[in-house]
Structure formats: structure tokens, C-alpha cells
């Protein structure tokens, strides 16, 4: 990790700098098992959390994440510290954590751009990209679509892929990236100047690490190719990591994602943006509580009937609605259970402490 010379180059805003006081500011570069690597002006600090963060364990979103701006106290004579404060996030890219447990996972925090990557082979999947787009728009980051390994296809195939994406991406930029040329690399670097931050998301083995090496201008990431036998990739990146570009700007690399489940932030901005046409129709229905089945004056059913809205698109919209509603119910139940468990644990500790004092 290369040290930067100013806090502004780490992405700190003037408003954040006013809150520093006598604490040491930095930005989280990696996180693993409660240990954080934090980049400061002059050093990389290994930091942990003090006990006051224990009450946040029931809310994963309250804990520090890669990309967060933090304030620390340092241990004298050592490059170690305690994270005392996490400065307010301007945004966070969140997904439902992999596995069966219902909980959010912050992929990256305080980013300006979300580079959504797929490769131009069997990895290309419009539905997966639509999930990425919904999550990116929900986070507030500006999405950029990167189609890697473009040397594997011809110009006609590129036109077909672009047409398929146009139905879900709208005016989101689409760049075809070849691993053997530097096409569009200068354009991506230009986006990240002026201390902007980006994260890159996609499946394993699609060329994310190769792309980062191109942006960095040197080989800083180990690369692996997609297996020719099944077009699936091997994991190269095993953790999220913040990287400082030599010419300015910040990249947050992420491990390959075999699955991507949406996480509801409550307002469904991403879904509303992605399906703004359908939500406009819903607002035009005669009745506010229209179920969009056989009610009179239903604009949705009229659009389905006259072909201005495809049945497949409406079914996809309903699918996401059901998924988010189910996830919200599970999340609320999980939060209540976690709070109850924490209350029981604290009560037990309190009883033990009182018993010990009475001896």
C-alpha cells in the first residue's frame, strides 16, 4: 500500500477534516477477523475496535467497513491503534450476505462509482447485471458497466450484448475491455481523478484483477483466468481491499461473487429507478390500492394488453418486490432475535458481576 501525502487524496472532505480534533484520521483499506488496516497520511495502521462498539454487534451496518473514514487513537511507539469513531458515510454498497443467515454485508463504503463487471463469454448474464444495477442505484453510487475479455467476441456480438443491456441499463455507460489492449483505461482513470473512489464487482476470474493492474500501471494483483472447461473462474481476490491509484483516485477490489442477493434499504430507490416505467404506470392506476389483476382502470394491465409493457419485465419486477419484502421480514425477525440475545447476555453478565461483588 503506497502512502498518500494528504488526507484529501484519501478522499476526506473539508467537512470531515473539521471533525478530526486530536485523533488520527485514516481510511479503512482491509478488514479481517476484527483487524483493520487503516491508511493514514504517513503510515498504515493495524487497528481494532474498543469495547464501546460491542453494542453495535447486533447491527452489522454500524460496524466499520472497507472504505470508511475513521478517527483513531494510536498506541505510543507502534503502528497500532483503536478506532474511536466512524465518520458518517455518504453511501454504502450493500448486499444480503452469502449463506442462509439474513444479514447485510457492506461491500464498500463512500464510493462514487460502481464498476459492474462481466466477461464476454458464458459469464454474461443480463439478470445478474440487473441485480448489480439495482444495488448500485440503491447505494447512490454511479454505475459503470464493464464487459471484460472483449477480445473473445466480434463486433456483431458486441452489438447484440449492448442491445440486451439497453433494456435494463438505460443511459449507464458500457465499456468493452480487452485484456490485451488499454482501450478505455484512460477514460476510467479520468473518472477517478480529483480523489474519487470506485469499487469493482463481478464473478471470479472475469479479469477484475487484470483491470486493476492496468489502472494501477503495474502488477499489484495476482491474476487467474476463467477455466475454459466451464467458463467459471477461480477466486483471486479473497478479501476487500482499498488501493490508491498513482495518478489519483481510489479503487476497492472485491472477491468474486457467485451469488448476489439484494438487501433492502427500506426505500427501494434502486428498484424504482430500474423499473421507473412500471412504477409510473402504477401511479396512473385509477385506484391507489390497485392489485394490478382485474381492477377497472388498471394502467399496468392495459400496458400488458397493448404490448407497451412486456409480461417478462413485469414478472421480473414482481419477483424483486417479493424478494425484498421477504428479506425485510426476515431481517426484522433476525434483528429482534439479536437484540434479545444481547439483552439476555448483558443481563447474565450483570448478575455475575453483582454476585462477585457480594462475595
UniProtKB/TrEMBL annotation:
**Which Pfam families does the entry mention?**
RsgA_GTPase
> What does this gene product do?
One of several proteins that assist in the late maturation steps of the functional core of the 30S ribosomal subunit. Helps release RbfA from mature subunits. May play a role in the assembly of ribosomal proteins into the subunit. Circularly permuted GTPase that catalyzes slow GTP hydrolysis, GTPase activity is stimulated by the 30S ribosomal subunit.
What residues does the EngC GTPase domain cover? 109-258
Keywords tagged on the record: Cytoplasm, GTP-binding, Hydrolase, Metal-binding, Nucleotide-binding, Ribosome biogenesis, RNA-binding, rRNA-binding, Zinc
Q: Which residues form the CP-type G domain?
A: 100-260
Q: Which residues bind GTP?
A: 148-151, 202-210
Gene this protein is translated from: rsgA
Protein name, per record: Small ribosomal subunit biogenesis GTPase RsgA
For this chain, the family text in UniProt reads: Belongs to the TRAFAC class YlqF/YawG GTPase family. RsgA subfamily.
